[in-house]
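Subject: mismatched residue count in predicted assembly?

I count 834 residues in my input, but I want to confirm that the predicted structure covers every chain. Input:
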Amino acid sequence: MAERLRIVQKYGGTSVGSPDRIRAVAARIKRSYDQGHQIAVVSSAMSGETNRLIALAKDISPNPLPRELDSLVSTGEQVACALVAMALADIGVPAVSLLGHQIRIQTDSSFGRARIRSIDVSRIEQAFAERQVAIVAGFQGVDENLNITTLGRGGSDTSGVALAAALKADVCEILTDVTGVYTTDPRVCPDARKLDRISYDEMLELASLGAKVLQIRSVEIAKRYQVPVHVRSSFDDSEGTWVVPEEKKMEEILVSGVAFERDQAKVTLEGVPDSPGLAASIFVPLSEAGIVIDMIVQNVGVEGRTDLTFTVPQGDLAATKTICERIVSGIGARGVKASPNVAKVSVVGLGMRNHAGVAARMFEVLAQEGINIKMISTSEIKISVIVDADKVDQAVRALHSAFLGPNARSLESPQGA
Amino acid sequence: MAERLRIVQKYGGTSVGSPDRIRAVAARIKRSYDQGHQIAVVSSAMSGETNRLIALAKDISPNPLPRELDSLVSTGEQVACALVAMALADIGVPAVSLLGHQIRIQTDSSFGRARIRSIDVSRIEQAFAERQVAIVAGFQGVDENLNITTLGRGGSDTSGVALAAALKADVCEILTDVTGVYTTDPRVCPDARKLDRISYDEMLELASLGAKVLQIRSVEIAKRYQVPVHVRSSFDDSEGTWVVPEEKKMEEILVSGVAFERDQAKVTLEGVPDSPGLAASIFVPLSEAGIVIDMIVQNVGVEGRTDLTFTVPQGDLAATKTICERIVSGIGARGVKASPNVAKVSVVGLGMRNHAGVAARMFEVLAQEGINIKMISTSEIKISVIVDADKVDQAVRALHSAFLGPNARSLESPQGA
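Triage response: the counts match. Full output below for your records.
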């Protein structure tokens, strides 16, 4: 007989998007249940429901009260959980839905982007003891005054991993509409392959770069509590991608994936005086305006002046320029220059930590393609470059082919520098 | 300056049925708020929402788990309350929505028809102290294990009156799509008039007979805790009908209203042996089949046998006949006879308690109209008769004219017997 496991299964909105799909989810849960496993399910709202509720709120008020908005949108998961429990009962699997207040998914009071502090698993342990499946509402919690909070977009991933940590589950399965984590986006690069295993750190770099399979906060929690996460399709039983603690042999693979982000803009403040505190006087007003800065590069200064370059989402460029032009004279800089159409391409991999050749090879490949590099920034396991927007597909394909393709050249003797 | 009152306002589903109507409700609440009153609002779900959720459940399972069905449908009120609170904030009125679990609307565990045991008003008192409007979700509560329960159809009336009782409110306003309680249905009798005041007992008899303005349980609670209830339109500011403790002068009015119920069926068990326990052997199996018996009449027996007649909703007639035919030989009765097309007409009034003439006058009026009375049953303040279904409108109009019309004959010298 197979091992009895404690499993958390998290289903996304598409997987519970219709009564038929909910029945399919129930059938899938039943298969695991019939194998004797203890199962806690975390469900998102039916696809479209959260947006429908937000639209209703916006119809009432341009700035809905955050507390009330959370109470409103949390109903989406409440509905889905009740329906999943009903569907299970209908095929003979005892099930009970559990909401944020019923199992004290305790969060702070930051409505719309609350962070989980603790989960009281006693009610779920009781369900397990009675051989029930526990259907837990994702995305929601309560603060210490029983106000309903939500965790922000994609928060059900976070609910799933946090619940798996609290339950000391053997695995947190993220069941979604893709079959796993890929080396890059298959729509851009037909050679993209599904990864069997990836480390938390690699996943963090990939997730933040646009492989939107798994919310980044959930990966941070998985890493902190060492929860094995299995990203897989909800529509079939094939193995997906395991997101796991770093393993020795992972370092043998130099590059795990090629990520990219379109619709970026690059802004340069020219001739910024090289004095302390100037960076703050630039980035504080931008941050207060809600603009998210991504890459920042500052060159070594010449004659006490330097150029400071950073990237923002394209949609924020107009606001960014307005703010920068206001700042520029105050700090004695020479001017503002913006490139509205750029993109970011990154290679990510644990292996590059011990191997200097990856950057060199990356720049060589891009040079061979005639692609101009406009900015470079690196972390321990990632190298990112900014290129012209119309070159991003070409760059991704070339880099994927060089590092991950069937004829990827060995890096034992790297060329270039 | 006008008196500062503590007011519970209960809004029905039609009143909060669209964003525009929610804004109108908010504007109405603001008018009361601006007068300095303390206001707790009880909201139903937006009209159609509860049915939508039930249809979703039925699509998943022919027999949805009662606990999950309650958790599912309770989201309707949760959504409406959040939207009302947002709409209030948008016009400068501080408001907070409060759900069953947040103010411990404690019920028993009878899912789908739970009864309220207590309400913890401390959170609402806190809202009042901060000059907030409390928006309380109707229809829902929690049992002692924090399972969500619902109170049954129309349960928001019960929530409203129970909350008014707990808060010792000066009035519970039931804001709805009618302008008050009428002497009879204006669609049947154009002479129908709105009642200014009516006693709890009269309202109980009228409510159970089809004047579906106010759920009967809410009237029972109002009577027990002596909560003044004001049934009025949510669309204008006109006075509606006050449902209040009995007042001396109410007895001067013999008849307050003429109620009726269509779609009834009459069943007679003929030649039932007149022995103890036989009534139970008839009605227990009917009740177990979920059939609601209304009027029951048993005549004095002849030669140890009697005819037993009762009424059921027309839709239950087939099932009733099947059960009766099974019983009939077992109890030694002669047979079953059914009339599928009858209706019930009742006159209700405190005044008839001290005046024997009402029954006589009622029968006289029906006789003058050539309407045959098939069954009679009476309570202290109500007389009901069963007539042919096609005579019900004529009977209502004639009785209304006789007791409540502009030319209603005085009963000082009643005719007939």
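The domain at 258-404 of chain A is CATH 3.30.2130.10 (VC0802-like). Marking this ticket as 'not a bug'.
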